Amino acid sequence: MNQIRILDIKESIFADNDKQANLLRQDLKEKKTFLLNLMSSPGAGKTTTLEKTIALLKDELSIGVMEADIDSDVDARRIEKTGAKVIQLHTGGMCHLDADMTKQGLEGLHTEGLDLAILENVGNLVCPAEFDTGASKNAMILSVPEGDDKPLKYPLMFTICDVLLINKMDVLPYFDFDLEACTSRARALNPNIRVIQICAKTGEGIEDFAEWLRTEIKKWTC
Fold first, then answer.
1. How far apart are CA 46 and CA 65, in angstroms?
2. Cβ–Cβ under 8 Å, residues 140 and 110
3. Helix 99-109 vs helix 9-31: crossing angle, to nearest 10
4. d(Cα 78, Cα 188) in Å, to the nearest integer?
5. Buried (b) or exposed (e) across 44-63, using 16+ Cβ within 10 A?
6. If you count DSSP H runs as helices and E runs as strands, how many of each does the chain have, helices first?
7. pLDDT tens digits, the chain, 222 residues: what are they?
8. How many whole angstroms separate alpha carbon 78 and alpha carbon 75?
């Protein structure tokens, strides 16, 4: 009796995606366009953070944003008001973007002349962490109401991110959130992760994030 051939589809999909991501990253590097992949849970404050960040950088950088959602264009309309170039991406039910989907989004955004392209990924701490989008750097937002245990529950997300923005610091006194414990847990997974405390609503800490972006963009375009 012949043996049944078994294919590990998941591994194949990831390997192909990684190849496409590296090609996309190389192309962006040649074009001197920095791509930031911003991830978080729904409601953590991605769009508000972007609004405040764009306000600080729009006079010195050409910025484009890809808003990824399962449906609606609510966030894209908000970003449009900042003056940044924006495009809405509908994922058709998918809970993440992969490299090919990101490439399609960049083509629709028309990145020629853009210094900074931002992908606001689908709100989810699981799937987006598994797929390399071809981004220059990965960033994530964790809001205080979500709890300080998230690095324990979703380790991959914290492992792949270059910067962690702890948002909604204004409500820290009202939640049982151990800032030191959360930071230590994140750094145990990723010793090189940069942790920045912010409040997107008030603008606290956004300048620190903007300065991190300026530094990384300068490195990318050198």
1. 12
2. no
3. 30
4. 36
5. bbbbbbbbbbbebbeeebbb
6. 9, 7
7. 456 654 454 566 788 999 999 999 999 999 999 999 999 999 999 999 999 999 999 999 999 999 998 777 889 999 999 999 999 998 877 788 999 999 999 999 999 999 999 999 999 999 999 999 999 999 999 999 999 999 999 999 999 999 999 999 999 999 999 999 999 999 999 999 999 999 999 999 999 999 999 999 999 998
8. 5
